[in-house]
Write a structure and sequence with these properties.
TIM Barrel
């Protein structure tokens, strides 16, 4: 993913103190040697948009029905599918989020992060929009620390129910406690919905200036006076927009010129946004979005699945339009999952590439199997053929967090019991009408 290094059919990577020192066809060194014969090595995936606290409720909602009346969960056109179990906003934010205790925040976030690491995602911006108390937020940060991932904690208020009135003041306390230096694996930013009231957004922007942070907006910025926000310097280029849907052509240009980063969620958009993935709208303007998984309550966190969806949707869209304009390529699809995601996370100079001076965050795919032998085209093998199950090893900051297909120093049996206990508590508290094993379609 680095033009200076290029793509090597075989080669060596020298790592020292968590940083890539050199990449070349052959390196002489007295370093410890790790033999990666019969593998493909590429940068760790970087996901700028995951709501990790939902881990104990992973894959709870099949076939989300995009609704107008999100509070009730009823679809726009009432029919036999009408059910309060099929609206993400109703289920997660109205029914479950107010029931979360700090322990549920911790184990849900930790489980999601370990899922990400196991599948080769080494950087995640955790969009944590359930900070009911300082303790809830601290539990989510502790889970990032314990997972070993390169994490960005995007601190945001809950959407429904009650929460600490000092939620914005707690941001400074959280920053001072967990993010005191730049020499650590974790960073922090603010979080808001783009459709929140302008007065609230301006207060969040004030706090982010005071604390010197980035801010993530989760859709909805088409409702805001973007030109004014840029001209007044309230938007300063340290913004990320999830989904990046529904903006006018002029608003997209304003965001491009203002340096705002954008990401898309191909699998989720096909359900939540009526099938619209705006990736090509942005690339036509010279903006290349990152890829994100969004919420584990609807899908498994799996960047390979996002790449499959983006490449297929993008190619099909261009063919339907009959245009000869730029299409989605395999290389750019992998770049969306790595370098573009790192840019969205505010870590474009740290992660997302294998190059000297970058953090040693990398993924090792096992190709010694019937799925990936022979390799032939390396980009096709990674983007179109591979899946999370062939991720053999994962390195973060020069340390292997997954080795020989197993997460390092993870007591899965103990963690499984904790996440199942959290699931049971949450389903019982909510009076969930479906069983813990659900066969509805």
């Amino acid at each position: 993913m680095d033009e200076g290094v290029g793509d090597l059919p075989s080669g060596d990577i020298l790592v020292d103190d968590g940083v890539i020192v050199d990449i070349a066809p052959h390196i002489e060194s007295d370093a410890a040697v790790v033999d990666l014969t019969d593998t493909i090595v590429f940068p760790g995936f970087c996901d700028p948009h995951v709501h990790s606290w939902e881990g104990a409720l992973a894959r709870l909602i099949p076939n989300n029905l995009t609704t107008v009346e999100e509070d009730s969960g009823l679809p726009e056109y009432a029919d036999e599918r009408s059910s309060p179990t099929r609206s993400y906003f109703n289920v997660l934010h109205h029914q479950f989020a107010p029931l979360y205790e700090p322990e549920d925040m911790y184990i849900g976030t930790l489980f999601t992060m370990l899922t990400a690491l196991s599948g080769g995602i080494t950087t995640v911006c955790d969009n944590m929009h359930n900070a009911r108390t300082y303790e809830h937020a601290a539990a989510a940060v502790e889970a990032l620390v314990d997972s070993g991932i390169r994490g960005v904690h995007a601190y945001g208020r809950p959407r429904v129910g009650s929460w600490d009135a000092d939620v914005l003041r707690n941001a400074a306390r959280l920053r001072d406690t967990y993010f005191a230096t730049d020499k650590q694996r974790l960073t922090m930013r603010m979080y808001a919905l783009g459709r929140d009231h302008l007065a609230e957004i301006r207060e969040i922007l004030r706090v982010r200036r005071e604390l010197d942070l980035w801010v993530t907006f989760d859709s909805g910025l088409e409702t805001q006076p973007l030109r004014e926000l840029y001209e007044r310097g309230e938007f300063d280029g340290r913004e990320t927009l999830n989904h990046a849907c529904f903006l006018s052509a002029e608003q997209k240009k304003q965001m491009r010129d203002g340096g705002t980063r954008v990401n898309v969620c191909p699998r989720l958009e096909t359900q939540f946004r009526r099938g619209h993935v705006p990736y090509l709208e942005w690339t036509d303007l010279g903006v290349y979005p990152g890829l994100s998984n969004d919420n584990p309550a609807t899908y498994a966190v799996d960047m390979f699945a996002e790449m499959h969806a983006l490449y297929g949707h993008g190619r099909a869209s261009r063919h339907r339009e009959g245009e000869r304009a730029e299409e989605v390529t395999l290389r750019e699809t992998l770049r969306a999952a790595t370098t573009r995601g790192a840019d969205n996370c505010g870590l474009g100079d740290v992660a997302g590439k294998l190059a000297p001076g970058r953090a040693a965050d990398l993924v090792v795919l096992d190709t010694d199997n019937v799925l990936l032998t022979p390799i032939n085209n390396a980009y096709t093998s990674v983007v179109q053929a591979a899946h999370a199950g062939v991720v053999r090893d994962v390195m973060v900051d020069g340390c292997f967090v997954k080795w020989d297909s197993r997460l390092v120093d993870v007591d899965f049996a103990s963690l499984k019991q904790r996440v199942l206990a959290s699931q049971e508590r949450l389903l019982r508290r909510a009076g969930w009408q479906l069983g813990p094993i659900d066969f509805t379609d």
